[in-house]
Amino acid sequence: MICGDLVWAHQECEELFKGLAEVVRMDSPTRADFFAGLQPGGKYDGIVGIYRHNVSADHIGIFDRELVAKLPASVKWIAHNGAGYDQIDVAACKERGIFVSNTPGAVDDATATTALYLLISALRRFSHAERDLRLGKWKASHVPGAAHDLTQRTLFILGLGGIGQRLAELAHAFPMRVLYHNRRPAPNAPAWCEYVPAERLDEMLGVADVLSVHVPLKKETEGLVGEAMIRKLKKGAVIVNTARGKVIDEDAMIRALEDGHLGGVGLDVYPNEPEVNPRLLEFPNATLLPHMGTETCDSQKKMEIRALTNLRDFLTKGQGEDLVPEYKQ
C-alpha cells in the first residue's frame, strides 16, 4: 500500500512489484475512513507491506499505537520514506511483529548541504543581508564585527551518522576543525574528525564556533540540547539544526539569543511544524528554512526508490536492508 506521496518513482514502483504484488493506494480522507478500510473486507484488507510518507499524517495522522493496533495481522513491514521516523511508534510495531525501515544514506547529501548553507549564512549573516536588500536598505544595518569566516573555525557535530559525516567532509574543505560526539567513535570517521567522549564533552563544547545537531528524535534525545549544553558553548557560537526541532530546548535557545550568548542560529526544523515560534522571526541573526533538508527532486527520488526497495526485498528475501536500529539492539 502506498500511504502518502509517491512523486518521482512511479515507473520504478511498477518495475519493482510487477508480477510480485498488487499495489494499492491509500486514498482515505480521514483517519476514521482509513480505519474502516483496514477492517476485514475493507479496501485495505490483506495488505502485507506499507510504503509510508509523512504527508499521509495530514489525512490519517501519525502511525501511533492506536493506528498500529488497527493494522491487519497480514501487515509485516512498514517502509518509511525518510531518515527520521519519529512519527511511527516502533515499540508498538515490534509488539505486533511488524518491521520498520527508513531511508538512511538517501538523505545524506541534501540534508548536509542544507546544514552547510545554514552554517555559512549564520556565520556570515547572509540571511539578514538578503532581507535588508529586499527592503531597499542595501547593507545599512550590517555590522562587520558580527560576521565571521569559516576558515579555521571549529565545527562540533552532535551525532556523526551519514548526514553528520557528509557535513564534516564539506566543512573540512574550508578548512574547519571538526569535532564530533557519539556514544562511541564512528568506525568510518576520517582521521581528521576528532572524537569527543562524554567525559570531555563540556570542555570541547567550549571551543566550538558552531554546534550542528544530527541526532534522531527519541524520548531520550528530546531537549538534549538544553540550557546546560547551550551555556557551555563559547559566547558567540552558532547552533545549526537539521535534525528535529524537539531535540533542542527552544526556550533555552531563545534566551541565549536574547542575551547574546549565542551569535546566531540556522534552523530547518521546529518543535511544532508547520508552526514556527514568532519570537524566532524577530532575530536578525536567525537563518530560518521551512524544513527544506531533503526537498530536491534528486533526493526525493532516491528516498522513494530506497523505501520501495525495502518493501520489495521483504517480499523476495524476507527482510529489507534498512531496519531501524531498534530492531538491531
UniProtKB/TrEMBL annotation:
<dbReference type="GO" id="GO:0016618">
    <property type="term" value="F:hydroxypyruvate reductase [NAD(P)H] activity"/>
</dbReference>
<dbReference type="GO" id="GO:0005829">
    <property type="term" value="C:cytosol"/>
</dbReference>
<dbReference type="InterPro" id="IPR029753">
    <property type="entry name" value="D-isomer_DH_CS"/>
</dbReference>
<dbReference type="InterPro" id="IPR006140">
    <property type="entry name" value="D-isomer_DH_NAD-bd"/>
</dbReference>
<dbReference type="InterPro" id="IPR006139">
    <property type="entry name" value="D-isomer_2_OHA_DH_cat_dom"/>
</dbReference>
<keyword id="KW-0520">NAD</keyword>
<dbReference type="GO" id="GO:0030267">
    <property type="term" value="F:glyoxylate reductase (NADPH) activity"/>
</dbReference>
<feature type="domain" description="D-isomer specific 2-hydroxyacid dehydrogenase catalytic">
    <location>
        <begin position="22"/>
        <end position="321"/>
    </location>
</feature>
<dbReference type="InterPro" id="IPR036291">
    <property type="entry name" value="NAD(P)-bd_dom_sf"/>
</dbReference>
<dbReference type="Pfam" id="PF00389">
    <property type="entry name" value="2-Hacid_dh"/>
</dbReference>
<dbReference type="InterPro" id="IPR050223">
    <property type="entry name" value="D-isomer_2-hydroxyacid_DH"/>
</dbReference>
<protein>
    <recommendedName>
        <fullName>2-hydroxyacid dehydrogenase</fullName>
    </recommendedName>
</protein>
<feature type="domain" description="D-isomer specific 2-hydroxyacid dehydrogenase NAD-binding">
    <location>
        <begin position="117"/>
        <end position="293"/>
    </location>
</feature>
<keyword id="KW-0560">Oxidoreductase</keyword>
<dbReference type="GO" id="GO:0051287">
    <property type="term" value="F:NAD binding"/>
</dbReference>
<dbReference type="Pfam" id="PF02826">
    <property type="entry name" value="2-Hacid_dh_C"/>
</dbReference>
<comment type="similarity">
    <text>Belongs to the D-isomer specific 2-hydroxyacid dehydrogenase family.</text>
</comment>
